[in-house]
Write a structure and sequence with these properties.
Bound molecules: adenosine-5'-tetraphosphate
Helix content: 40-55%
Distance between the termini: 29 Å
Number of helices: 13
Order of helices and strands: EHEHHEHHHHEHEHHHHH
Strand content: 5-15%
Structural class: mainly alpha
Strand order of the largest sheet: 1-2-3
Shape: globular
Largest sheet: 3 strands, parallel
Oligomer: single chain
Length: 332
């Protein structure tokens, strides 16, 4: 049986990259797969989070999933900390994964920066918790943006090593699903940097809750080069900002990059940006509005997360019992 697990961290500033790289794909995949979508609050605290902001962001991510069209009845939506087996399995995986594997993780290097000694142990062990998130449900497929590919490879290594060490076939080896024309949306201020929640500039990202004026302004101010739009894919080489805006247009209009350059090749950016802004407003505007409506009803959002957690626990518990037996832990 094919099962999907994927997550988003409640670290504030949900943006177009999170939408195009992850959440929008989930809306499509829910028709084909049994899906478990998680607000990964335990991952979020690997860097400092104000407790009240963490709670609000947890509700915001859940609202984003629902507002984007993930059906909370047909799928499971919950926050990670409500299912304690994530932490339990992560500990087992801390004892399976090798230090050398974690030392190669580029996200840790980027996030810890120069001050490595001061990074939390959780930030370092993050990929082991991510492997636990996926394998706790024996998920077979994990839809993510390009930036998470290395972590999925580590989850595959952990599944294989666990199975080999304990001579079992308990865990499937999960496959990443990296889908769409915008698997790595870049900053609007610098086409060589990923659009990210933690960028200090608001103008680097389009937030999922931005209104029409903010969206239009951010696209108008987006960095570009002085040349007109390229006329073919090769013409995008060495022009990261142009490639990024074209990729965003292709993803939002559900077309290919080739179609976009065919349509707009040779045009000035001012014209293209106007069309891109209209497209972004019509795609994201209604989602942002619905998110705001849902966030004003925390009772409803909390009930979705509670119900989802209960259903997630029902899947996780028997799998965790299998893990106990395989490892040799005595249980009641
Ligand atoms: N720029 C992006 N383009 C495409 N996909 C992206 N994702 C994130 N940024 C982009 C995908 O969104 C999902 C959830 O990401 P996350 O919340 O777990 O964390 P992240 O990747 O650390 O997100 P940010 O925005 O980049 O946060 P910071 O600034 O804290 O590093 C994942 O599937 C991810 O691939």
């Amino acid at each position: 049986m094919n099962r999907i697990f994927s997550g988003v961290q409640p670290t504030g500033n949900l943006h177009l990259g999170n939408y195009l790289g992850a959440i929008r794909n989930w809306v499509r995949l829910q028709k084909e797969f049994e899906c478990i979508f998680c607000v990964v609050d335990m991952h979020a605290i690997t860097v400092w989070q104000e407790p009240a902001a963490l709670t609000a962001s947890t509700r915001e991510v859940a609202a984003a999933m629902i507002a984007s069209g993930v059906d909370p009845k047909a799928n499971i939506i919950f926050n990670q900390s409500q299912v304690s087996a994530h932490a339990e399995l992560a500990w087992v995986f801390n004892c399976v994964a090798r230090l050398g594997w974690l030392n190669r993780m580029t996200q840790f290097k980027e996030k810890a920066g120069k001050n490595r000694e001061n990074a939390s142990v959780g930030l370092y062990a993050y990929p082991n918790l991510m492997a636990a998130d996926i394998l706790l449900y024996k998920a077979t497929h994990v839809p993510v943006g390009e930036d998470q590919k290395q972590h999925i490879e580590l989850a595959r290594d952990i599944a294989q090593k666990f199975n080999n060490d304990f001579k079992t076939e308990l865990f499937p080896v999960p496959e990443p699903l990296i889908l769409g024309a915008a698997t790595r949306v870049m900053s609007l201020r610098d086409g060589t940097k990923k659009m990210s929640k933690s960028d200090p500039s608001e103008y680097s990202r389009i937030a999922m809750t931005d209104g029409p004026d903010e969206i239009a302004k951010k696209i108008r101010k987006a960095k570009t080069d002085p040349e007109p739009l390229p006329t073919d894919r090769e013409g995008m080489t060495g022009r990261p900002e142009a490639a990024n805006l074209i990729g965003i247009y292709a993803a939002l209009s559900d077309s290919d990059v080739e179609d976009v350059v065919k349509k707009y090749g040779g045009e000035q950016f001012s014209t293209f940006k106007q069309h891109l802004a209209d497209l972004a407003v019509s795609s994201l505007g209604p989602i942002g509005e619905e998110m705001k409506r849902l966030m004003a009803d925390p009772g409803y959002v909390d009930s979705v997360l509670r119900d989802g957690a209960e259903r997630a626990r029902a899947i996780a518990e028997p799998i965790m019992r299998e893990v106990h037996d395989v490892v040799g832990f005595l249980r009641p």
